[in-house]
Amino acid sequence: MTEPKDIRLLSPRVTPKADTPPMRPPRPPIGVPLLNDGRYALPEGNPCAGCDHCCRYVSIEIPTPRTKRDFDNIRWYVLHKNVSVFADWEGSWMVQFDTPCEWLVEGRCTHYEFRPHICREYDPTECERYCTTPAEKILIRTEQDLEGYLVERAVRNAARKAKLEKAAWTK
């Protein structure tokens, strides 16, 4: 059996999740001031009141993709329901599984006193609810998103290479 010489990245079908927006937390309560750093001020009391966004997904850091195999792995991730890949503004790459915590019932933690350490250490100032921009710099939810990202990446890399070659010739 021989391997195909050219493997198509993009399948011809469009997935249903391409038609749905990414999961986002509810916006802050009315009257919360916007700060100079582009974040909303945290309200008095419990800043998490009315929000269960961080209880509805799990994100795991993955190595920064660099090779065809890395990007094929990302393709495999996003071919699954409720799975996306993103890069945050600090450059960390994550695979995200949109699946609620078993302890979440009607928007509240039913075992709050026994919640895991990761829940206890979560800083509400980092919540998307209090940011004016998306949490991710790059969001890949579908094969089409991945293909678009790879095209943009190739254009950026070609421009960077041309700039370096031009600089080498002017020396």
Structure report:
- The chain is an alpha+beta fold and 171 residues long.
- It has a domain of 110 residues.
- Helix content is 25%, strand content 15%.
- The chain is built from three helices and six strands, in the order βαββββαβα.
- Strands 1-3-2-6 form a four-stranded antiparallel sheet.
- The N terminus is likely disordered.
Characterize the main sheet. 4 strands, antiparallel
Proportion of residues in extended strands: 5-15%
The helix/strand order is EHEEEEHEH
| Spatial gap, N to C terminus | 52 Å
Number of DSSP helices?
3
What form results from the Cα inertia axes?
globular
The low-confidence runs, each spanning 5 or more residues with pLDDT under 50, are 3-7
Mean pLDDT: 86
Count of DSSP strands: 6
Portion of residues within helices: 10-25%
Q: Which strand order spans the largest sheet, edge to edge or round the barrel?
A: 1-3-2-6
Helix/strand/pairing class, anyone?
alpha+beta
Q: Return Rg in Å.
A: 20 Å
Structure at a glance:
Helix content is 25%, strand content 15%. It has 171 residues and is an alpha+beta fold. It has a domain at 32-141.
Write the layout of secondary structure elements.
Elements: E1 58-62, H1 68-78, E2 83-88, E3 93-97, E4 104-105, E5 108-109, H2 117-120, E6 136-140, H3 143-169
